[in-house]
Amino acid sequence: MELPLDKAAARSTPLALPAAGAAAAANQSPASLPLGPPAAASAKPLVAAANPPLLPVVAPAAAAPKSSSGAVEESKEGVEESNKSNVLTIGSIRSTLMKHEDTIIFGLLERSQFCYNPDTYDPNASRIVRFNGSLVEFMVKKTEKMHARMGRYKSPDEHPFFPENLLEVVEPSVEYENVLHPAAANININKRIWDVYFGDLLPRLVKEGSDGNCGSSACWDMLILQALSKRIHYGKYVAEAKFQGAPDTYTPAILNKDSDKLMELLTFAKVEDDVRARVMSKAMTFGQVVSEDLENEIKLKIEPELAVELYDKWIMPLTKEVQVQYLLKRLD
Ligand SMILES: O=C(O)C(=O)C[C@]1(C(=O)O)C=C[C@@H](O)C=C1
């Protein structure tokens, strides 16, 4: 994807304005924006889904338990059962997490085709009139402002990176069903996600230096950040499903404010192994460079181990962190 801010396009479009380019890029984003109404509603999303679609905004809400008797049963071995179809099951939440993997891995593959492009992150290089900050900050802030107008952050599974910066929703707004405890609304670890992405992940994903594609770099950064945020904050739903499945198991640790015990209870080593294996396999499959020359060795766009490490070191630990934060407040 070449944006007006990118080198090739800029040569023939000297008037390309960063503001217009960034806003256009935000609108053109190939990953769908989960701005639609709740899964339970029948209306179409406001933005057409493309490659690969994110989930309906409140997928878990469609499976909201109607009464505590419909709770999920779960053992430490990760076996879960439900005797009702419309409950928040750990199985349905895990299949949502699997779909998030596709979005994250595709994003990494796309961003990896560009160099690091340091000007994207340098406030002095952005030269955006009346804006103090880098190009990527500009893109995320402006996009979030617009998405807030469309109600994105009214949805309990959406979290802005710049919450102080949002605009009011245009009418009519959608009422989202929420299965989470109200305290969930105050859990937002996007600052950490931002720091991990720019501090640890990005420099290892891309080649050093500049290729002029700052607009595309910022656009993919934003899409990856949004996908990471969505996946990690899904920890709230994971935790709710686990609590509903075994309230007696979690309650003493919650009452004792015992974070370590909660961490131990909600950790499933076998599930984590499966996640690592699946991410490896997806990164190898989606990341193949397809050439006409079938004789040659298969080339990969990114090292699959990097995607696995991302999950191992950050995505799963941060998802667990969200779960602990949520459970600590679950009985407030
Ligand atoms: O599936 C779960 O039970 C989760 O809590 C999610 C998750 C993950 O982030 O993928 C996190 C912790 C568990 O140990 C296993 C997997």
UniProtKB/TrEMBL annotation:
<protein>
    <recommendedName>
        <fullName>chorismate mutase</fullName>
        <ecNumber>5.4.99.5</ecNumber>
    </recommendedName>
</protein>
<dbReference type="InterPro" id="IPR002701">
    <property type="entry name" value="CM_II_prokaryot"/>
</dbReference>
<feature type="region of interest" description="Disordered">
    <location>
        <begin position="65"/>
        <end position="84"/>
    </location>
</feature>
<dbReference type="InterPro" id="IPR037039">
    <property type="entry name" value="CM_AroQ_sf_eucaryotic"/>
</dbReference>
<keyword id="KW-0028">Amino-acid biosynthesis</keyword>
<comment type="pathway">
    <text>Metabolic intermediate biosynthesis; prephenate biosynthesis; prephenate from chorismate: step 1/1.</text>
</comment>
<dbReference type="Pfam" id="PF01817">
    <property type="entry name" value="CM_2"/>
</dbReference>
<dbReference type="GO" id="GO:0008652">
    <property type="term" value="P:amino acid biosynthetic process"/>
</dbReference>
<keyword id="KW-0057">Aromatic amino acid biosynthesis</keyword>
<dbReference type="GO" id="GO:0005737">
    <property type="term" value="C:cytoplasm"/>
</dbReference>
<feature type="compositionally biased region" description="Basic and acidic residues">
    <location>
        <begin position="73"/>
        <end position="83"/>
    </location>
</feature>
<feature type="domain" description="Chorismate mutase">
    <location>
        <begin position="220"/>
        <end position="323"/>
    </location>
</feature>
<dbReference type="GO" id="GO:0004106">
    <property type="term" value="F:chorismate mutase activity"/>
</dbReference>
<dbReference type="GO" id="GO:0046417">
    <property type="term" value="P:chorismate metabolic process"/>
</dbReference>
<dbReference type="InterPro" id="IPR036263">
    <property type="entry name" value="Chorismate_II_sf"/>
</dbReference>
<keyword id="KW-0413">Isomerase</keyword>
<dbReference type="InterPro" id="IPR008238">
    <property type="entry name" value="Chorismate_mutase_AroQ_euk"/>
</dbReference>
<dbReference type="GO" id="GO:0009073">
    <property type="term" value="P:aromatic amino acid family biosynthetic process"/>
</dbReference>
